[in-house]
Amino acid sequence: MNSLAVTEQMLRDLEISLAAINNSELISKLEKDNNALGKIKPKECRAEAERVIGALKKISPDVSRGKGNIELSEDKPTDYWLGVIWALADLQWKIGKEIARKWSQGSNRFTEDGFEAAWNSYDPHYRNPISIRSVFKLAEKFGHSVTDTSTKKPATPDPTASPLAILNRFSLTGSSAQMKKQMLADVFAMEGIAILGQWTTLYAAPNTGKTLLALWLLEEQISAGIIDGGKVYYVNADDTYRGAVHKIELAEKWGMHMLVPGHNDFKASLIPAIMEKLANAGEARGVVLVLDTLKKFTDLMDKTAATAFGVTAREFIAAGGTLICLAHTNKHKDADGKGIYSGTSDIVDDSDCMFVIDKLSAEGNDVSKAHTVEFTNKKARGDVSSTAMYTYVKRTGEPYSALLGSVKRIGNAEVDAIKKATERNVLLAQDEEIIRAILSCISKGVITKSELIKAAMAEADASKTRVKNVLERWTGDKYQEGQRWAYKAGEHNKFSYSLTTPPSKS
Amino acid sequence: MASSISQVWGIIDVVAGSAIELRAFHFTGKSKVISRVFNPVDFESVDSMKLAFEALALDLNGKGYNIYVTINPVNSELQSSSARDKDILYRCLLLIDIDRAGVTKDPATDADIEAAKSLAKEIMKYLAEKGWPKPTQVMSGNGWHLYYKLDRLSNDNDTTELIKRVLKQLAKRFDNSDVNIDTVVYNASRITKVPGTIMRKGQEAPDRPFRQAVVYE
């Protein structure tokens, strides 16, 4: 150990001694000015209004008018009605008067004139006005448990506190009502794919169309009025300048926000801090944040970075935010031929919901190509689809809006048909060499089964079983279903093979 | 008091198997950030590397760039142009950065610097009572820096969080209405001003001059 250097233990000791000093100073400051917090007026917002109303529920309005003060030295104060009215007036909230009226109406003594006179008698210039803090303290005397946001608990525990005190501080028992308010109903930010209030990650290989589909799915919900475009923030960090401009135009049309790193001083690296601030400021609720693509916001190959991102993302979600991340699969496929997420498992572990998007087919020519993609759910917390399929048509020279306009969701019947077609195409590709050999043999006039098998075996250099299987698999009249030859009875009841005609030639 | 740029080596250690990064920001913000990694293996000797660093720093500083250097050793196999937290081998310095409170767009006044120095002394005294070693002091141009040598702490999340908490507690204890401790200088790849170079920002005025960062023994 270097005696001229600061050790980890010295840092830890310093932290503890400073924490002890800082906390004791804070406590004595509060004790000296026990009215200090009362002087801070809560801002007018739903949460604060509910807090005040909750406290008033414990205070009976059916008491004498009093002189405008609340005598907190008494065990069960009386004569506080005017004091409460003035404390509510002191808030200077737009809904303060209505809250005061509703509360006062709980008493048989209530008269509208009396209430108006009392409300108007409040003097905002009074040197030592009564504050809402006194109302909370009064409510406490009647059994109300007060959650005071102005004395919000620190995010990290006081290192000098006892372990049991720290554990108690983290307990959520008693917070269910508050948490319920944060909870969002199962509403989809992306139909069947991403639920509001969750973290959904969509993995796909490059050029699968994940940005296109994400935009289409968001637009669908915004247009239907299910989500508010003004609360959707699409961070487009994986685009060209031209591509970004086209997408900003669309976002403007939908009333959705689009952020692009390098523009308006925005940097992708700001996102974790912004998520944290939204959560801490209570502004995350309802915000839908889409990160395209995730690797621009954290290092997916670095476990520490991915874990840190996960912690921030969970804070954002716990505060009512919705996070949708688009990410890349790696170059490998799983046993079912589906894509595998790229990076460490931390993002998948921390996400609520995860889909892998695979391209099933791309049919057409160089000018116009129809793409079919499948979303396969790999992790879910909620009633999301297990699979979903979409098609889109890419035409050379067409604008991005036209590409977006070509996206279609595929129904269940079509899904089955496409899946069958996909499986068929895979088999056709596998059997291609033997199919060519059989077609060649039939063309040369080898049409009886045993001769055909023998000739195809020689031409394709394949086993008898393999050739026989391929021959039987693709026998029939339906060319579109992959059938390439038919087996029919001819003259003298002699069975022979003939080529199946493609539909365009029939 | 003038300071030689070579005094930077009294603060920043150049050790075998590690590199340092020079980063330069033009004070107008209109030019690209310049970043150069200095790896001893690319030079005949450590001394020649130091000379090359000093030459580039002074050249860029003369062209209006503010010059910074990484405070912790950088992995010599660094692939990117700039060191990130994961590229730091271990932590060997704790930076306590004291600046005036409020808007700091323009250069500090002498009174601002005096206030920062005075708080630095208070902190040094307090830490000395706790058995901490003597730090290196630098008048950073607009405030005061204290550099405490760390006993090669590992570069991991625990250390980062510990340093972050310590800076916050120090700020809680010592911040006053005139000067504050910067609580965001906790990351491993933190860069700091190079002594012996002039720090420029905002609008220079007779009572707010651009100053050279100076080491105080």
Order of helices and strands of chain B: EEHEEEHEEHEEEEE
Low-confidence stretches of chain B: none
Name the CATH superfamily assignment of chain B: DNA primase, PRIM domain
Tally of discrete structural domains of chain A: 4
Annotation field: number of helices of chain A: 18
> In terms of per-residue confidence, which ranges of chain A show pLDDT below 50 for 5 or more consecutive residues?
33-39, 148-157
CATH class of the largest domain in chain A: Alpha Beta
Shape of chain B: globular
Q: How far apart lie the N and C ends of chain B?
A: 12 Å
Helix/strand-derived category of chain B reads: alpha+beta
Number of helices of chain B: 3
CATH fold group of chain B: DNA primase, PRIM domain
Query: What's the mean pLDDT score of chain A?
Result: 82
Distance from N terminus to C terminus of chain A (CA atoms, Å) equals 89 Å
| Number of extended strands of chain B | 12
The structure class of chain A reads alpha/beta
CATH topology of the largest domain in chain A: Rossmann fold
User: Into how many domains do the coordinates of chain B divide?
Assistant: 1
Question: In words, what does this structure look like?
Answer:
The complex is a heterodimer of chains A (506) and B (217). Chain A folds into 4 domains: 1-32; 37-149, no CATH class; 188-411, Rossmann fold (3-Layer(aba) Sandwich); 431-505, Arc Repressor Mutant, subunit A, CATH 1.10.10. Chain A contains 18 helices and 14 strands. Chain A has helices at 8-32, 46-56, 81-90, 96-104, 112-120, 132-141, 163-170, 176-182, 210-223, 241-254, 271-280, 303-318, 346-350, 400-405, 412-430, 432-443, 449-460, 464-473; strands at residues 188-190, 194-195, 199-204, 232-236, 257-259, 288-292, 322-333, 339-341, 353-364, 368-379, 387-395, 408-410, 485-489, 495-499. In chain A, the strands form 3 sheets. In chain A, strands 3, 4, 5, 6, 7, 8, 9, 10, 11 and 12 form a 10-stranded mixed β-sheet that branches. A two-stranded antiparallel sheet of chain A has the order 1-2. A two-stranded antiparallel ribbon of chain A has the order 13-14. The longest helix of chain A is centred in the N-terminal third of the chain and has 25 residues, at 8-32. Chain A is elongated, with a radius of gyration of 35 Å. The relative contact order of chain A is 0.07. Chain B has one domain: DNA primase, PRIM domain. In chain B, 25% of the residues lie in helices and 29% in strands. In chain B, strands 1, 2, 3, 4 and 9 form a 5-stranded antiparallel β-sheet that branches. Chain B has a 5-stranded antiparallel β-sheet with strand order 8-5-7-6-12. In chain B, strands 10-11 form a two-stranded antiparallel ribbon. In chain B, a hairpin with a 3-residue loop joins β6 and β7 (143-154). Chain B is globular, with a radius of gyration of 17 Å. The two termini of chain B are 12 Å apart. The interface between A and B is medium-sized, with 25 and 25 residues.
